[in-house]
């Protein structure tokens, strides 16, 4: 399971393992750690789309773990986010934030993102390697989502550290501690904004809570935490993975460098080729279902390997080849169905601006060392680089 999902031995390149599993069966039972229990892993594209849009697959983690002896101590605001909810609760919560992330709404952030990207690139040293992850892919999305939510500049670095801890693989205590820290921080920020209201998205959510009483206090904190964490972690890996894919392919890099206006059209293929979310968030069967040709009993987790589905040759011919002319709009990197990533337009805008700026300002950019020596984060959920040293 670890190998197929981007674990220790195949963190750098999980796709051969995914392909081998898919060829045996696109939906199959896999062991879940040392507990003796089993989950079902989905590696086929058609089966993944079905699973992501099937109401019999619940995301209500509270219902699944009720009565089970778990050792986790996640703060409720982190454990019970909108991502861990089913309709009608999910529908109500998502409706409150969808308007802030439409393509039209995020377009208003273009000047800010462009200016911020320029300021970050101004700091890149002309001599010696630059870490594209630490010096661009990490700070840019953090600063953008913090700006959107109204998080003070002085707190933004700490917010990023908490987020990294939440995604730390194999260290549940670290994640649990971070969940309480970030939830407590957001509770304090909400209290502060009640005293001194502003115009941020968080201020608008507070007004919804206090004015129309459509949000409980726990829901308000939970939404704030989800937007804060999910709003930048995956975009960081989107940028890093896309940059690496181009740096490893000089012809594609040159093509976009010579025609930066083509960057927006290349984003879907870059997302398909190396998805920043390796495995979708938790789902479990509420009744026995048939997924593809596989019968799955009730009450078991189903893990959808988005990266594997995006490399299914039945949907994308020659899937292991980056093809900037491919129509990759059907990729599943942002999910599918009612839980599709609400922040997708913002992530696309940040990636477009950042990649275009890097290629334009640093036409000679290249890897500072062999790609096979790069270190990948060892986590089942997200897929991204620890660092990406480049020479400019």
Automatic annotation (TrEMBL):
Record CDD domains: CYP107-like
Protein name: Cytochrome P450
Any Pfam family hit: p450
Stated family: Belongs to the cytochrome P450 family.
Keyword NAD: no
Keyword set includes Iron: yes
InterPro entries to which the protein is assigned, alphabetical: Cyt_P450 (IPR001128), Cyt_P450_B (IPR002397), Cyt_P450_CS (IPR017972), Cyt_P450_sf (IPR036396)
Gene Ontology molecular function terms on file: heme binding; iron ion binding; monooxygenase activity; oxidoreductase activity, acting on paired donors, with incorporation or reduction of molecular oxygen
UniProt keyword annotations, A-Z: Heme, Iron, Metal-binding, Monooxygenase, Oxidoreductase
